[in-house]
Amino acid sequence: MADTPTILYVVRHGESESNRNKTVGGHFDAPLTDTGRLQARQAQQALHKVHFDVAYSSDLQRAVETGEIIFGKPIPPSHQWKGLRERDYGSLTGKSAAHQQTIHEIVLTMPDAEIPHYKYVPDMESDHEVSTRFINELTKVAEANLGKTILVAGHSAAIRTTLMQLQSVGYRAFPSGSFKNAGYVKLLFSDGHFIVQEIAS
Q: Given 3-state DSSP classes, what are the helix, strand and coil percentages for the chain, each rounded to the nearest 5?
């Protein structure tokens, strides 16, 4: 009999106040808006046939609340991990999201090989840094829950850059803004590696 697969559904949080106000969220702990809660409930309906054995989230309230709406019960504090947070935007945090559009425009002019390590400001995480951190945390979640179906509530840049790394594609395949609020990706964890099975972005 084959081993039960380990499956992760990694969901972006619903609209946050930072999204609504068009400011850079990053590690700022912005709550969900009413629209964000509605988006989370819509994601719950889209995934209603999936039985989640366990749920994790970043420790930022927009991810925690999204995860709890989809999971249907509280996510224990021990499953709210700082390592699952959004990209750290450093000194850009809380500033106008116009900076993110500027970053997008600059990146599109760069050679593909340079993009993963680019930083608009010195104290922000690069694509490579955020994806490596996020994949490491997802691996810990999967290894602690082998054979289970796991919900992970996370953030846009962390999910996008992870997809880029897992699928060995460049920024143009998953540019900034391409992963919608409450969108999700389904991952299979096998032999220490992730396989992308579905993207609903």
A: 40, 20, 40
